[in-house]
Amino acid sequence: MGRLTRRSVLGGIAGLGSAAAWPNSVLPATAARKKTPYGIAVELGPFRKDPLYRAALIKYADILVPMNALKWGQLRYDKARFDFSGADEIIEFAKRHGKTIRGHNLLWYNYNPKWVDAITTARDAEKVLVEHIERVVDRYRGTISSWDVVNEVLAHNPLEQGRWRKGVWFSNLGARQMEIAFAAAARTDPAAQLVINDYDLENIGPRFDARREAILQIIRNLQDQNIPVHGVGFQAHLYPEREIDQPGMAAFLQKLQQLGIKILVTELDVIDWKLSRNLIKRDIGTASITAEFLRAIYSQGPIDSISTWGITDRYSWISDVFKRKDGAPNRPLPLDRNYQPKPMFDIIEKYRESN
Ligand code: XIL
């Protein structure tokens, strides 16, 4: 391949295998509809020290999502008080620049302070959880319009590990953790969009079937009890070496629509640890899996929002957790380390325009 231009790379992707690899079929004839709102998860460190990072947030995002600043580990490291300082920095910036804000998250098995993980009774767990949700959701009522209420409540493999992820909330409250969390959030801000957020929902295989089925069961159970739930968040940490389950996704999305549930992409990035070291091939691989996933997620019509977990390859959790064996830096996000758009960026734009 000659010099890499975005056009040539996109052309390359169009030619990769079946016609279905390129999504023209889902694009509307006219671009009359509104683009899908685009969100970026914001990391406090770079946000404070890198003006180019802030400029990219201003330039590209419709929505900002504090990446870690609203997690229990940040807000509640001290049992005696809430520390909203980090979250407030990002939220003030978002407001100043006319961005809407998504909140991540109110309940997770991970990233909790020690005093929370030490809870051993249902009574204490419920009290602490409800207090937290009421306090946090109330503080940002009218400001945070969409919440990841529960995050990663499914077991990694529900076929082998029981349906739910083990952790402080599950071990004390069982499946009631979801009911308590959604009910508390809905009571506190009846106007907020309440989302169940999870990973590994898009691929082929029994583990993924079981995870999709578990999501449907949670939603039906909440709805049977008249507890509001409005959306499913597909984290979409994508593995290029795994195939997207196009029919499985279509069927899942149809069932969600029948239940009145909105579809969100919440943490999109690409785990490029097994892709070629060659940058052109790597960026094509990253854009291709993004296109395959977005083809599935848009197959039943418009979606509610699409967020990436960061914006530039300069800062990403993928570089910490999914390091490449060859030591080459990861390239998981829409902009490269110098804030230049990569083919993945154009793929996201194409699909956003198809909303
Ligand atoms: C990650 C952040 O990106 C890291 O900075 C942090 O150290 C750990 O958490 N699924 C989620 C996110 O729901 O909250 C995680 O974010 C990534 C996986």
What does this structure look like?
This protein has 355 residues and is an alpha/beta fold. The chain has one domain: TIM Barrel. It contains 15 helices and nine strands. The protein has helices at 6-14, 44-49, 51-60, 72-75, 85-96, 114-117, 122-139, 158-161, 168-173, 176-188, 206-224, 246-258, 279-297, 318-321, 343-353, and strands at residues 38-42, 63-66, 100-108, 144-151, 193-198, 231-234, 237-238, 262-270, 305-308. Strands 1-2-3-4-5-6-8-9 form an eight-stranded parallel β-barrel, surrounded by five helices. Bound molecules: (3S,4R)-3-hydroxy-2-oxopiperidin-4-yl beta-D-xylopyranoside. (3S,4R)-3-hydroxy-2-oxopiperidin-4-yl beta-D-xylopyranoside is lined by residues 67-68, 151-152, 235, 267, 309, 317. (3S,4R)-3-hydroxy-2-oxopiperidin-4-yl beta-D-xylopyranoside (XIL) binds at residues 67-68, 151-152, 235, 267, 309, 317.
Question: What are the SSEs and their pairings?
Answer:
Layout: H1 6-14, E1 38-42, H2 44-49, H3 51-60, E2 63-66, H4 72-75, H5 85-96, E3 100-108, H6 114-117, H7 122-139, E4 144-151, H8 158-161, H9 168-173, H10 176-188, E5 193-198, H11 206-224, E6 231-234, E7 237-238, H12 246-258, E8 262-270, H13 279-297, E9 305-308, H14 318-321, H15 343-353
Parallel strand pairs: 1-2, 1-9, 2-3, 3-4, 4-5, 5-6, 6-8, 7-8, 8-9
This protein binds (3S,4R)-3-hydroxy-2-oxopiperidin-4-yl beta-D-xylopyranoside.
(3S,4R)-3-hydroxy-2-oxopiperidin-4-yl beta-D-xylopyranoside binds next to loops.
